[in-house]
Specification:
CATH architecture of the largest domain: 2-Layer Sandwich
Helix content: 40-55%
Strand order of the largest sheet: 12-13-11-16-17-18
Shape: rod-shaped
Number of domains: 3
Structural class: alpha+beta
Protein name: Diguanylate cyclase
Distance between the termini: 133 Å
InterPro entries: Biofilm_reg_signaling, GGDEF_dom, Nucleotide_cyclase, PAS-assoc_C, PAS-like_dom_sf, Rev_trsase/Diguanyl_cyclase
CATH topology of the largest domain: Alpha-Beta Plaits
Organism: Devosia yakushimensis
Pfam families: GGDEF (PF00990)
Number of helices: 14
Oligomer: single chain
Length: 458
Amino acid sequence: MRPMQSSAAFLGHPPSGEARPAALDARLDRVRQLLGVDGAALAFAGSQAMQILWQAGVSGQIAKDLAELHAHAAQGTGPLVIADTGRGAVRFYAGIPVTFGEGEPLLLSLFDARPRSAAMAGQLGILAQEVFGGDSEQRSQAMIVRLESELAEREQAIADLLATRRRQLELFERASKTARIGVWECDLSDNSLTWSNGVYDLFEFPVGSVVTREETLRCYSDASREAMERARAKAIAECSDFSLDAEITTVKGRRRWMRLTGTVETRNGVATRIFGMKQDITEEKLLADRTRYLAEFDVMTGLANRSQFQARLAELDTRPIGALLLADLDNFKQINDTYGHALGDECLKEAAARLRDACPAAELVARIGGDEFAVLLGHETTPGQIEAVAERIVAEIGKPFMRLGQMLTLGASVGVAYPDGSPAPDLFKRADTALYAAKAAGRNTSRTFHAGPQHTVN
């Protein structure tokens, strides 16, 4: 075989037996980097046997696959570009014939473990041919300079894009922290979780730690966990979305409420991933509960208020009761006038507590006025039990008690009315009539309104 003086001279490669300068390795390796491939080899093309002059990234199975492809490329007269070999360690391959001056024909082989699209593979082949296919070193060097310039521009564009993404991510994290929102996803193939910082903060796990789904499930209350699992299973089965509010206890023991949303991602009709948001709504939940409490309960005594009492009374047609009892404190005005409102408020609290104790099975115990209370007993309560409750209320509230250094004694008058299908206002009037009859009888007693032709009270 003729020694390749011209080719060697162009490539900076000395005649056989002399040391190859590092400039050749550096130059060809730079071209490999510019073209974005795993490896490259420069070999004689005159024989199917691969006699390599220079190589990078060639080892093990790659060498075997590359030798087969080189032999195939050496048989042709033009470039051989394979976007995807479909097998082996070499998936992308480009074999480019190279001739420098009068030297031996060479074959430049580019390869990569990843396949390329047909368009990308063709472009890489063209670029390689432009770099090494010229008849002058000046032209090749100019092409390398152009590639380096384009690569520098692409690298700068990528750097700018990454910087923009980092700024956007920082803004998102700040906004998420302010809104107490985090993004989550679950890979359904292994139930592995990916969280943004907001979700870590919500559950109080260390940011960036590996958290399993089983660990998060232990944070849910029993009711919330069951509701979430039902909603999640339904969404996966139907490839749909879900949303619910759930109660959790963080790993540090804090009780919180969160709003959980999820979207199921599918591939070929099969659910593969769930992702969504989790937002801390503890303050919102507490405010809503407080607002609802204020709308339905008496702040001083903790009993249901008049609004809740009237709403329940309006449901008599669909939710019958056994009896309505009205209780009014005796001598309360005298205590207020004598000892002041602070002690009067203590009397109301004590009376409310005793009223609850006297009728623990009541459907509703409410404060409906200044010192007036109402009790609704269930429809299964017998007349004898109802009369016993009325007597117990009188007895319990009449017991003396000590408050703010004063021994005090209250009394209670109770009026009882039984429903007979009449409208709720009529039932209330009958109980009120019985209450005034108890007061007229000397207070600290109870009276019952009996419906009938004569409407008696005794």
